[in-house]
Amino acid sequence: MGNxxxxxxxxxxxxxxxxxxxxxxxxxxxxxxxxxxxTNNHIYLPVSxxxxxxxxxxxxxxxxxxxxxxxxxxHPEMQEAHESYIQLQGSGWRNPLSDHDFVSTKYGxxxxxxxxxxxTKNCKTMKKHIxxxxxxxxxxxxxxxxxxxxxxxxxxxxxxxxxxxxxLMDSWRFSLLHSAAEEQVHGLVxxxxxxxxxxxxxxxxxxxxxxxxxxxxxxxxxxxxYVVHWVLKSLLSGLNAPEDIQxxxxxxxxxxxxxxxxxxxxxxxxxILTEKRIHHNTPDTYLHLYDPEEIIIxxxxxxxxxxxxxxxxxxxxxxxxxxxxxIDHTNVDEACRDLNLMGELRSTYRCPVHLGVFVVGCFGEIxxxxxxxxxxxxxxxxxxxxxxxxxxxxxxxxxxxxxxxxIILKHLCVVNSISTVIFCCILSKRTQKNDNLFIMQ
Length: 441
Ligand SMILES: [Zn+2]
Fold this sequence. Notes:
The chain is of the alpha+beta class.
């Protein structure tokens, strides 16, 4: 842009870039990549910080201006050009050096030593220096405007969203999930907006939060089972199960004994019988390993980000503190020690018993909490290496995110409202054919 418009100022170029950004956002809305009411801050935040990772042309242009200046001042082959630019600058003409100085003054960039060997390092330093306040500002506004932004930023830097960077993720799903996280789904009420009861008749307010994680829906079980399925899959491969043990896609029940690296029994979806009857006795996965003997109980849960840690706590209390009463969010804090599955197994088998809790956020979030680190340690110790662990996390996150987007769409289709059906059809048009199938269902 500097070459195209030599007579305009650097500041004008930057302003023009901002206009282009506005046009880009319009295209994003037209193509369903950004919801009309989702925040702007959010689309420009990197995916790792919970945003959509779109580049802001204005800031990118500024970074390029600075990088170009650093290069011209540092590279020996640029010396001649450098001198000509100094002359231009002296007579008040716009040139790459004046652009560099303009941006560098605007952001108060640190002084650097202009030598060839430090070009890469200096460019990186400048880029970081310019980006940092920009992202901080975006984050600040996101926190201010959005409840989800607040809880997301609170978990940083220990939160990731592998589903959003998956090459399989459709852009409309991506956009729908973002809108849902920010309570901006067309057809549902916002948390602070006027109240409308859930169309499924559960007498709760019909917010995106409610639909994606707190309603009465069978689909939650399917979503949960996908994660169990991926866990079982990685257990089978990590423990070297014979190839004839097959697990059908989406299946979350299993009962097998085999000799792989060592003797293993896996039970999933079945009650574990103990001498004294226990209420919470059906963990998602029960793993009995021999030589040396140990038992591992794995519990899986899908929760809204705001309840992530609460879910971990509930699971932990159910299996390691009090398994005889029904424990949920209402009484988890008052639970006192009583019979529990881990204690019973320990006294029956007289071997170490471990509990691993794996929670996935309903939009695909993974938070590296203490519990998350703990289950990672347990799984790695029995032979699921880092790569397999990564695959497990990515697949779980993706499956949950896709299921949640389906749950929201299906929910909107429950009423006989023509407008929502049309809405779904528009969305389905933008995606692959197999999604049409589910719309028709
Ligand atoms: Zn409901």
